[in-house]
Design a protein that fits this description.
Helices cover about 0% and strands about 55% of the residues. The chain is mainly β and about 240 residues long. The protein has 2 domains: about 10-135, Jelly Rolls; about 145-235, Jelly Rolls (Sandwich), CATH 2.60.120.10. The mean pLDDT is about 95. InterPro entries: Pirin, Pirin_N_dom, Quercetinase_C, RmlC-like_jellyroll, RmlC_Cupin_sf. Its cofactor is Fe cation.
Length: about 240
């Protein structure tokens, strides 16, 4: 097994007043040649947007863009005609393909919104732009990882143009589980600790730490505290 550990404190930070954003990988003014991406996982941003503020209309092209709200409600509008609200418990995906324009705003005028913005490099270029959104079944059963994203439209969760699988779950303190990769020959796995503290192969990970591994068929996660995790399996090469 090969691995890389990204402590939360090592992330890039951008404070724009209305937006506080932490970047696991190089993004905007944060540049680290050793942290450009993990396989096909290109962006993992941990964003906090002030009440009533947001991202104005801006374009994307040839990228799979996933948004996962953690707190609050985020209003989405795009030039495909979608006007939607995504909230905690939802997952949103856009296949930017040949190009789309969208905006995202904090729907509340009193509370900030917190969400993850994730970009995955697609395995198909110049596809027709597409929007998808689902509510993750609640409550998530303790000590399980549920699938929230895959390459297959008929599978659980949303789907993208890439051989990638995302799982989300909570672990009780002192509980351990082993998660098997779907495609261990080609893929690696990046785990992001949303809350709590876990141990992987002797490495302790705390809140907002990231841990990537490859050349392995599975991962064993031991919860040192009650923990919430996002587990992202992605191809290591295009």
């Amino acid at each position: 097994m090969k691995f890389i550990h990204h402590p939360a404190a090592s992330r890039g930070k951008a404070d724009h007043g209305w937006l506080l954003s932490y970047h696991t990988f190089s993004f905007a003014n944060f540049y680290d040649p050793q942290r450009m991406q993990f396989g096909m996982l290109r962006v993992l941003n941990d964003d906090q947007v002030a009440a009533g503020r947001g991202f104005g209309s801006h374009p994307h092209q040839n990228m799979e863009i996933i948004s996962i709200p953690l707190e609050g409600d985020l209003e989405h509008k795009d030039d495909m005609g979608n006007i939607t609200l995504i909230k905690e418990g939802d997952i949103q995906v856009m296949s930017a393909g040949t190009g789309l324009v969208h905006s995202e705003y904090n729907k509340s005028h009193t509370k900030e919104v917190k969400f993850l913005q994730i970009w995955v490099i697609p395995n198909k270029q110049n596809v027709s732009p597409r929007y998808g959104q689902q509510t993750i079944p609640q409550p998530i059963k303790d000590n399980e990882l549920i699938q929230i994203l895959s390459p297959n439209p008929e599978d659980e969760g949303v789907w993208i143009h890439q051989q990638a699988w995302f799982h989300l779950g909570t672990l009780s303190k002192d509980y351990s589980l082993t998660h098997n990769l779907k495609d261990p020959e080609n893929n690696g796995l990046y785990l992001f600790v949303l809350e709590g503290k876990v141990e992987i192969d002797g490495h302790t990970l705390e809140r907002r730490d990231g841990f990537g591994l490859w050349d392995s068929k599975d991962i064993t996660i031991a919860a040192l505290q009650s923990s919430k995790l996002l587990v992202m399996e992605v191809p290591m090469n295009s």
